[in-house]
Write a structure and sequence with these properties.
alpha+beta; Ubiquitin-like (UB roll); PH-domain like; SHC Adaptor Protein; 13-stranded mixed sheet; 23 strands; Growth factor receptor-bound protein 10 isoform X2; cytoplasm
Length: 594
């Protein structure tokens, strides 16, 4: 047995691998090393030994790679010099021959290279350098918070939640010019936003608040339906357009009193409906029926200033005009506008801006139009009832059952949204009746004559109570007579010193329903007040005059027959009793500062 030492070829390090074999002894001249040219016959004879040496080097390299993966990656790509240093970007010296043995085809895929075993500290520095250089070039604003061991990368959970529920800021204006920026979700409807504003403004939620899409440059505005997405509508607005937060008591009034909105002479059917007025709305909501609204309208020509009075009929497919009198034959009908990709607006100042023949104008505006007036289909009715009928029919034919669902859903949604629910204190004719408490038990007064007599007695009783209070508190520094003249200014239904035209405009904006009212200062008499009331879509004014009795000041609507110590008592009385008014006071106009 002999021991033979095999050295690695030129370019390797001074690593000695011992191998014990039972071979005859060899002379030193048979060794292949630097400066000793190897004999071809000896290399051929010992080719089998060279293959065994490569297998051993492969094993050593694999073990070193498992311990120092970063170093082994560099060792496979960068050759080593004889002094153990890396040959970085230095060409090998000319005339140097690499005496690496030929590997078998099985080992050509992963060919082992000579490995230089560096010190442990050098390996750690190399590994940190490679880990740092492999990171993406992201600037780190806080370098003192993270070192090479903790790279400045965002970890999972450090980012905000999913962007599916995107948020957007929307600016809402009120009637007095104040505004508020509200952050809403992308899927929030107009009804949800109104309920949120009611909750934040501490208002009474009676399902009559709406959002108004206001276009001052076009002179148009409309009430958003409760199911419409606010973000989607805002994307179609022009730069100077805005949202208004306003009351609209007539939003679903046609479901309660359809006969006030659809006169018989304006509605026709393919088949005569059975069931009278109750069947009227069902035919509008039923897609299989074919109701029509017909009548004369003033129509403005597109791109011109001229108006023409035409016979118009409204169907599910759109608005048509007759080119021959009142004929509705298909060959005489011409399409004016469709309802599918359009919205219905009312004209704010039609006479001034569009030279409209009447004050009861409305418009069918395509959704793609933002600030151009050429594609607006402008129309005018003869009176307010006609305009209301046309606009309500357009809403019903376009949205159908969605309107009825919006009308029925709000009472069902209150338990689902306890955080936004507010007490409901609306006054209606169904919830208030005349009562008699003169006996041991109260009873409902059903006879109108007896109810009027009880109202007169109640008015006299209030006068006696107020007189008694004046006597008891005569020593008070603030006299009751002075308090009665200013206490009404704290109420929402009192609008101060506004003109007659302004009061009519507010009534029209908040819905022409029976019993809608407001109080204001009189312009003709500085000591008097005016009650502005809506009845049958007409606005009427009643003057409230002060009168003196036994040295005290009272207020009366009927020339002193029924007297009240202040306006709050007057309003409370006429909410319960009609008296000399055409109807009871049901809803008051209100302006809320956001």
């Amino acid at each position: 047995m002999g021991e033979r030492g095999c050295w690695m070829p030129a370019g390797g390090a001074g690593t000695r691998v011992d191998q014990v074999e039972q071979t005859p002894p060899v002379s030193p001249r048979d060794l292949a090393g630097p400066g000793f040219p190897a004999q071809p016959d000896r290399l051929t004879n010992h080719q089998e030994d060279d293959v065994d040496l490569e297998a051993l080097v492969n094993d050593v390299s694999a073990s070193l790679e498992s311990l120092y993966p970063a170093c082994s990656m560099q060792s496979e790509t960068v050759p080593l010099l004889q002094n153990g240093q890396h040959a970085r970007s230095q060409p090998p010296p000319s005339g140097t021959r690499s005496l690496q043995p030929q590997a078998s085809p099985r080992l050509q895929v992963q060919r082992s290279q000579p490995v230089h075993i560096l010190a442990v500290r050098r390996l750690q520095e190399e590994g940190e350098q490679f880990r740092t250089s492999s990171l993406p070039a992201i600037p780190n604003p806080f370098p003192e918070l993270c070192g090479p061991g903790s790279p400045p990368l965002l970890t999972r959970g450090s980012l905000p939640p999913s962007q599916a529920a995107a948020k957007q800021d929307v600016k809402i204006f009120s009637e007095d010019g104040t505004s508020k920026v509200v952050e809403i979700l992308a899927d929030m409807t107009a009804r949800d936003l109104c309920q949120l504003l009611v909750y934040r403004s501490h208002c009474v939620d009676d399902n009559s608040w709406t959002l108004v899409e206001h276009h001052p440059h076009l002179g148009l505005e409309r009430y958003l339906e409760d199911h419409e997405l606010v973000v989607q509508v805002e994307s179609t607005l022009a730069s100077d357009s805005k949202f208004l937060f306003r009351k609209n008591y007539a939003k679903y009034e046609f479901f309660k009193n359809p006969t006030n909105f659809f006169p018989e002479q304006m509605v026709t059917w393919c088949q005569q409906p059975n069931g009278g007025h109750n069947q009227l709305l069902q035919n509008f909501l039923n897609c299989s029926s074919c109701p029509e609204i017909q009548g004369f309208l003033h129509v403005k020509d597109l791109g011109k200033k001229s108006w023409r009075k035409l016979y118009v009929c409204l169907r599910r497919s759109g608005l048509y005009c007759s080119t021959k009198g009142v004929s509705k034959e298909p060959r005489h009908l011409q399409l004016l506008a469709g309802l599918e990709d359009s919205s219905i607006f009312s004209l704010i100042a039609g006479r001034k801006q569009y030279c409209a023949p009447t004050d009861y104008g409305f418009c069918i505006k395509p959704n793609k139009v933002r600030s151009e007036t050429k594609e607006l289909r402008l129309l005018c009715a003869e009176d307010e009832q006609g305009r209301t009928c046309w606009m309500t029919a357009c809403r019903l034919l376009k949205y159908g059952m969605l309107l009825y669902q919006n009308y029925r859903i709000p009472p069902q949604r209150k338990p689902l949204l306890p955080s936004f629910s507010t007490p409901v204190r609306s006054v209606s004719e169904n919830s208030l009746v005349a009562m008699d408490f003169s006996g041991q038990t109260g009873r409902v007064i059903e006879n109108p004559a007896e109810a009027q007599s009880a109202a007169l007695e109640e008015g006299h009783a209030w006068r006696k109570r107020s007189t008694r209070m004046n006597i008891l508190s005569s020593q008070s520094p603030l006299q009751p007579s002075t308090l009665s003249t200013v206490i009404h200014r704290t109420q929402h239904w009192f609008h101060g010193h506004i003109s007659r035209e302004e009061s009519h405009r507010i009534i029209k904006q908040q819905g022409l329903v029976d019993g809608l009212f407001l109080l204001r200062d009189s312009q003709s008499n500085p000591k008097a007040f005016v009650l502005t009331l809506c009845h049958h879509q007409k606005i009427k004014n009643f003057q409230i005059l002060p009168c003196e009795d036994d040295g005290q000041i009272y207020f009366s609507l009927d020339d002193g027959n029924t007297k009240f110590s202040d306006l709050i008592q007057l309003v409370d009385f006429y909410q319960l009793n009609k008296g000399v008014l055409p109807c009871k006071l049901r809803h008051h106009c209100i302006r809320v500062a956001l």
